Amino acid sequence: MRSLLNFFLIFLATYLALPQSFAADSCSQLIGSCDYYTCIDTQRLSCGDQGYALGYGRRFCQKFTGMSFAPARTRLEAELFPASGDAWRDEVRSCLQEELETFFTDTQNASCEQLRTFAFASHPHCYTKGPSFCELSPENVVRIGLTIKTDLLTGESFQQIRDTAEICDAQLQARIDTEPKALLRWQLAHYQGLWRLIAADPLQVHRFLETVRP
């Protein structure tokens, strides 16, 4: 009995001495919730209100959670832009957080700058993984743009816009190659051309949003 008690006390002391990153495994249970960002900043890597987790991740997670998306108005629009805005938002939120889980698993002695760089690099993949940003209606794309408009004028944002636009170009080409309806192919090709222009000059997104009334 005494040996069992000693074992328990040693185990408890060892557990309490573990670094916070081990105890922070509970954060993974919050994937899909905006509280995930608060958890990782509190338990894993504290970067403060200006860091990625609180200053970007949580802030926009909360904005998008309360955002409404426009449904397709016509059958043609539904065929051209089949992605649901609500489904896109929910999948992106989980994907971004799952990507951060891999960062904390694979990175030793992580810095706030490393976290921010990794997180931004993961955005285009999660935006287009599916349901894809490239399959959202232009109206919903504009709504998303207006939501993040104040953060678009940075090198990080320009890069993620360019990367996302290039993925959209490729995804639209794949749809064009397999689309049997001539009208849809023509419409998709036109939309593809817009993404190619954005990939060439991401600043066009900000210029356009400046002309749109929220």
Largest sheet: none
Radius of gyration over all CA atoms, rounded:
21 Å
Instruction: Report the uncertain regions.
Output: 4-24
Question: Helical percent range?
Answer: 55-70%
Shape: elongated
What's the helix count? Answer: 11
What's the overall average pLDDT, rounded? 89
What fraction of the residues are assigned to beta strands by DSSP?
under 5%
- H/E series: HHHHHHHHHHH
Number of strands: 0
Which secondary-structure class do the elements indicate? mainly alpha
Give a written overview of the molecule.
With 214 residues, the chain is mainly alpha-helical. The protein has a domain at 69-209. It is built from eleven helices and no strands. Helix 6 packs antiparallel against helix 7 (112-128) and helix 7 (112-128) packs parallel to helix 9. Mean pLDDT is 89; it is low at 4-24.
Ordered list of secondary-structure elements with their pairings:
Elements: H1 2-16, H2 20-23, H3 35-43, H4 52-65, H5 75-80, H6 85-106, H7 112-128, H8 138-147, H9 155-178, H10 182-200, H11 203-209
Helix pairs in contact: 3-4, 6-7, 7-9, 9-10
Key descriptive features of the protein:
single chain, 214 residues, mainly alpha, 69% helix, 0% strand, elongated
Summarize the structure.
The protein is mainly alpha-helical. It has helices spanning 2-16, 20-23, 35-43, 52-65, 75-80, 85-106, 112-128, 138-147, 155-178, 182-200, 203-209.
